[in-house]
Amino acid sequence: MANIYSGIYTKLKDRSTDIKDRLKLTKFAWLSDKVIFPNKEQVLIDFLGGLLLNRKRSNVTEDETGLVWRCLYEVLQTKKCHVPAKFRHTLIIKPSISQVLCDSILLEYEKNSGCTADIVGCALAIIKSPTLSYVFTSKYDFLVKFLGNVLLLMVRTIQDGKPVSSDLFQLLQKCIAMYSVSQRAHPQQTKVFQSVVEHLLISTLLLGSLAEKCPELKNCVEKLNDILDQALFHREHHPFYESFLSAVAGKDDKKHKISKTIESLFHSLSSLLNKKKGQVNDTDTQKIVSQYLVVFFDHFLSQKCHGEKTLTGFQLFVHICHLIGISDSSVERGGPLDQQEVVTVLSPLVRSLLKHDIYSQPQDASDGNIQYKFYCHILIHVLQGKQSSLFYACLESLLELNHAILETKMSEVFITGWFEVLNRDLLTSLDSFLAKLLQTYSKLRQVPKLLSLLLTAVRGSEFSQDPVFSEGTALRLGEVVEQLPQAVITEVWGLLLKEISELLLGLQTEDTRSACRLLFVTKLFAVFLSHVKVADYTITHLTRLKVKGLMEETQSRLIAPLIERVTGRKSTAPEPVLFSALLLSYYWGELHLLLEAFNVADQRSECHEQNIYRNLAVIFSIDSTRWKKIHTIATNAGVKRDSYLWKLLTTLVLKAMLADMGVEVPNKEVTRIVLKLSSDTEKCLSGNPSLASGMLWEISEENYSPASLDLVLKMLPLCGPHLSCDTTQQITELVMRVMTNVTDAEIRQLLESHVLERCSHPDILESCSWSSCMLTATFKTFCLTIQENQRNTNKKMKIDSKSSSVRAVLDELCDDVFTIQASEYRKRMEKLRFISDLISDRLLNVHREGHLTADKSSWGVCLQQIDILTQCDLSPEERIRSVLGVLTLLTDTVSQEQAGEEELLGKILCVMIKIVEKMGQAPLFHVINVQRFMNWCSSLLAKENKMYSLAICQKLELILQLSCRVMVKDFQLLPELFHIMNKELQGSSMTAVPCSVVIFLKEISLLLKRPYLKEEVISMCQTGVLEVYRHLKPHLDKLQESSGKLTAGHVCSLSAVVQILPREQIDSENVLFILDFSLKILEDLQEDPCLTSACLEYIQSLCLSLDPDVKLLTPEQKLTLWTTLKSVFKHILVQNGRKTSIRREHQSVKCLVASILKSEGPERKFDYFTDTPMEWTSLDEDKQGSWAWLRKKMMYDGSFEREGGRVIFQQIQSSVGALIFCVGDDEFQAIINSLVSDCHLEELVPHNLYKMLASVHLWKQVLHNELTEEKGAIVVNAVEQVMIHFQSAMLQLKDLQDDDVILSLAVPVMNCQADMLNFGPSLMSPQCATLALQSCTYIPLCTSSHYPAFHAVCVVLTSLIVHHTDSVFKVISTFISCANRLMKFVIAMGNQEMLMESNTVMEARNCAHNLNKLYVLIASHKLDFSKVAVYLVSNFVSEVQKVTLHPAVKRALLPAIYAILDICDNHVISQLHMVLNQGVKAVFNVLYSDYMKYHHYTGKV
Question: Angle formed by the axes of helices 19-31 and 40-53, to 10°?
Answer without folding.
Answer: 150
